[in-house]
Design goal:
The chain is about 45% helix and about 10% strand. The protein has a domain of about 130 residues: Rossmann fold (3-Layer(aba) Sandwich), CATH 3.40.50. A four-stranded parallel sheet has the order 2-1-3-4, sandwiched between helices. The N and C termini lie far apart (about 40 Å). The chain has nine helices and four strands. It comes from Rhodopseudomonas palustris. This is TIR domain-containing protein.
């Protein structure tokens, strides 16, 4: 499922299962957290919520639907109240930069306040525009993208740890032993021999 409006018949949308600290409606309370993740995909938001609830040692997390950033009435409260108080922001796009004015506004605010900003495409491609709008090193962006491309709370937790560390926050590190096989790095020949 790539769109928030899609869900299985008879089930509530995943976003309803996600405890969010931000409302999708302008004028309602927006609260701050150290890390903020924005995505259109319910599956992304649900995975990050599950990862945050299941893991100790992660900074406070705020989840928001990207519609909040695109809607001009919701954008300014989201940027001024929630994003401006964060230490790290992860935006997962469907691909490319469809709203350059909104992304430019967030990028300028992140640069001015020293907030780590990662904009990663969700279409399986590396996007130079997303890289340019982000303020993290390409290696960190690739790691975040690879983790976000793998579904589930284990990958989401690893992405939150990566974002926290890139933001200068403390997070319980993941070790090879605590990573599920689907996201654990494969040892090199020299590592396996030792």
């Amino acid at each position: 499922m790539d769109h928030c409006d899609q869900h299985a018949p008879g089930q509530a949308p995943a976003a309803n299962l996600v405890e969010r600290t931000v409302s999708p409606r302008p004028g309602l309370e927006q609260s701050a957290a150290e890390l903020v993740v924005l995505s259109f995909a319910d599956d992304d938001l649900a995975a990050f919520a599950a990862a945050s609830r299941a893991a100790d040692g992660l900074p406070r997390l705020h989840l928001a639907n990207l519609r909040d950033l695109v809607d001009p009435h919701a954008r300014e409260p989201l940027i001024a109240t929630t994003l401006a108080q964060a230490r790290g922001i992860l935006i997962r796009l469907g691909g490319g930069l469809p709203w350059p004015d909104a992304v430019a506004r967030v990028a300028a605010m992140a640069a001015a306040k020293g907030i780590a900003l990662a904009i990663v495409p969700g279409d399986g491609q590396v996007d130079p525009q997303c890289d340019a709008a982000s303020n993290l090193p390409p290696s960190t962006l690739r790691r975040l993208k690879a983790l976000c491309d793998k579904p589930g709370p284990d990958s989401a937790r690893a992405a939150l740890v990566q974002l926290a560390l890139a933001s200068g926050l403390r997070a319980a590190p993941l070790t090879h032993a605590t990573l599920p096989p689907s996201i654990a790095p494969t040892p090199t020949h020299s590592e396996a021999a030792s």
